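Final report, Chapter 2: Outcomes

The project's central promise was a pipeline that accepts a single protein chain and returns its three-dimensional structure in a standardized token representation, suitable for archiving and comparison. That pipeline is now operational. To close this chapter, we reproduce one record exactly as it appears in the project archive, with the input sequence first and the structure output second.
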Amino acid sequence: MAFSTHEHPHLPNLYGATAAPPPTPSTQPNPLSTSAAADTLSRLLHRLPPTLSLPTRLSSPTTPMCAPLISLSDLSSALLKNLRSSSSQPGFLQLTNHTIPSQLALSAESDSLSLFNLSRDQKSQYFPRNWPLGFDAADDDDDDDDVTESFCVDTSCSTESTELALTHLREFTRAMEKLGLEVVEKLSCAVGFENPFRDDPTRFCSLMWISEGSPGNDKPDMSSRFYPYVVGLQYQIRCQKYSVLADSGWVSVLPDIDSVMVTFGDIAQVWSNGKLKKVRGRPVANMGDGNNSRCISMSLLVTLPADSTVSPLLPRAVVGGNEDDEVNKDEREIDDSTRKREERLFNSFAFEDYAWRVYHERLHLKDPLDRYRV
């Protein structure tokens, strides 16, 4: 819009030649200086929600932290001890003495690399979108080859192409799912809730999320998709850092080679009624420090069917048990009053609605679970 070049007409003198000018704000009494107004303001501040906080600063992780290194056989007792001290429970850990062969992980990575060598049309054709499954780019309308791309497949790793066997990726996905279900069982023993997957395989589903990071980029990829899950697993094939969005903000993690990094998701936090800290979304692999090699991330998410309802699974009472069972012994040491009755910290909600919202909004600043807190 063009601005007029004409001079503005002079405003008439509404006060006369000798009239005093209108009072300025500095000469007026301050309405907030009275004690009554101050009391009103104080009451208003006290009525603000206690959870009101500033957004998490999305600064790049710096020095990698060391995630707790736990053997699979000791997972239940180690988790139970960590739960007693919130400072020692960051929402993720390294798992050793697992059953995943390193050669299988390498072969699955080769299968995954072949997917990213396909053309954009082949990716969309072989892996059609069926949310959340299929091929996804950060911006489908962008022809830039550098946009973030990912594949989401189920345990069968099914594809519309007869040329893509993906045998090793399928075997790796199913082995990781088996390990993930074992982690959930150990988790339920440590926290004290009934494992809903134990006797009903229809209560869970698994997704393998495959993405390729930008070579030489040591910053979190803000375009990565979020999807709710119970536990997430990533095999550490080589020396490679991850950026993890914990409740405290972004942190950098460098797991040991051949370990499996386990992250607790938002569903695990609700199930544990807030006892477990969580990781928002999947850990993001990055290859900074001048490393220009291709960076493939394979994340197995143990999650829920779309028609599920999410609610806290309050701790069950421990009755009897083998005195020599270390897990039961540790469980009996938990305060009995907590097991008798525990107040819910989350309201129940529909999983599909929640998953759709966090997937498309990709909330990084605000915790998506805040709206369901009691």
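Archive annotation: The CA atoms of residues 179 and 365 lie 31 Å apart.
This record, like all others produced under the grant, will remain available to the consortium after the project formally closes.
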